[in-house]
Design goal:
single chain, 346 residues, two-stranded antiparallel sheet, 9 strands, N_methyl_site
Length: 346
Amino acid sequence: MATICPRRRAFTLIELLVVIAIIAILIGLLLPAVQKVREAAARMTCQNHMKQLGLACHNYHDSTGKLPAAVLMNASVNNPADHNQNFGPNWMVLVLPYMEQDNLFRQVSDSINRYATTPAENAWRVIRSTNIKTYRCPSDTGGDTPCARAGGNWARGNYAANAGPGMFWVGGTAALIGGPTGAWTDNSPSFNPDPGGYAGLAFSGGGVMNVNTGQSFTSITDGTSSTILIDEMRIGPDANDIRGTWAMGQTGASISAGNGRSDTPTPNVSCSGCDDIQGGTDAPAVGMGCCSGCLSWQVTAKSRHTGGVNTAFADGSVKFVANSVTTRTWFLLHSRNDGQVINGDY
């Protein structure tokens, strides 16, 4: 007797739609979690990069007795904030041997040595197009678009030396130290940051890496654990914006200056005209507002991490500073010698 197999019933359209809806809901629930995990991993990688850079600066200090200069500028430069002038190698070039990039450094070491006494020397710039993984934050975008300024083809980066809360300009109070004519000053007796978001206060505002010289750890009188060494920066929104350019010794590119002022009061602030970036793109809608008609005088630290920025401190630690930090604290964290007590609101 033949066995009659029961006929299998197919899914109805309604059942199929229900299954699809359930799958869509599950994906919708899981996707944010996956994105959070990816961002957490990217943030940790960024912190590791900053840790390596901080240790490289410490090793440089051990070898020379000082931190690296934020940027070298010879006598041909009369304005440190103008990228059309012949600025020299910056701190990220100088620490290459301590970042397992000794071969790259050797290619240009002779040019670096000649730069101080040779006004037209710029052969060191041949390495500017080299992409270095540890100089980039994996959370940021735009890294594949080189900066077209100052001769073009500058590779991108996300980290900047703290030159202090003063403006990066000739004669700017508490701005820079070691200019060829002595015009760029540092550690003035008092620095009144007005307009700086809190009038009436007078602090010294020295940075840790400046023009033509870096500071010794003993000159960081506020304490290395309370003074930022390296800030995080975002890459500019297009090729004409210098922000986030690793070998370019300019504010916003690889130098942090002016943090804690009225235009740059806290991390990730963006409004039209906030950053002063020569020839930059004023794009506040994507968090990159700037005064493009200014020279490169000031910039606030920025990142694509949720809620704040990574910072490397002079003691070698890496800390995440929240966007909610007060302007006063943000200023004090960037000054090595203000003599004030930080309340710990970061």
